[in-house]
Amino acid sequence: MAYGSIILFTKDFPSLEGGGKAIRLVHWLTYLAHHYAKVYCIYFHPPGRMEDVHFLKFDNLIFIPVELQKQPAWIAFWRRFIYGFFKPSRYSIFWYWNMKPEDHQKISSLVNQADAIMIFRLYMFPVLVDFLTFSTSDAQISVDMDDAETDTYQQLTRLQWKNRNLKDWCISKIGLFYMRYYERNIPGQVNTIYFSNKKDIYKHRTNYSGKQVLHFSNKIPVIPRERRITKNRDTVLFVGTLNYYPNLDAIEFLINKIWPLIVKSLPAAKLIIAGSKPGDRLKRLIQPNTSISLIENPPSIQDVFEKANILIVPLRAGGGTRRLRLLSSS
Q: How large is the average pLDDT for residues 179-190?
């Protein structure tokens, strides 16, 4: 039986070609489309950046892209600093006060009519605060925490301090402060909290007494293939967003500590590192090693998976989705 309408707020883009969060969002939208008569996915995106969602074939899924307006970097910095210090509930990694007035009005109208509201990921908390301030809705409100963000930030700060990455350490420390604030203040404004990891449920259930704390797993769609691909059994693949600190740390650990041992035992071995937004630091690390190749911003992750026989995920921080069964062998 389908319920009424639900609004999902997100800054992530649903995609089977993206990272773990993008795939998790596809799973959520698929689930909601089977349980609600109308699903409004409100996606905030930078100017000019809009992608195709044709693969989500649901008549009751209404995708509402909201383009954020540009502002000078120095204004964004000081707004972020001042609002974050004096009013932490307004701190966020994107600034929704740059939204066009007509978009704000349209979303407020939808919020007042919705039966349920979902905030996808903790950093969207300011959206919840803003729109519910003007809302007369009695909607049931949920937030998908995915991984426990404070745990991730704590792992990052320990790793960055150990590696003497002081700039990244300072940024993560600030992020940790606000994530703790959000985790303390969210329970008073929502009905249900979701985690991707069952361990997080048991850990945080006492912190959120009086609220539903539930598990929503990360599921990976298996995509059928028309032909069988003969893969190189000596080729290893690492795939991920390449400017994300846990991934960058994992690659450095892989190249400096793990890969020399593999090549010593298997001289013909090849390593492919694939993903979006690789920086100069990563390129300099890969360049001297002829057994390692970089696939930058691949148009299709499926095609990348077909080039290797082994997937390696040597993460030392963060959680995330392990895409071990993204492709079908058929």
A: 80
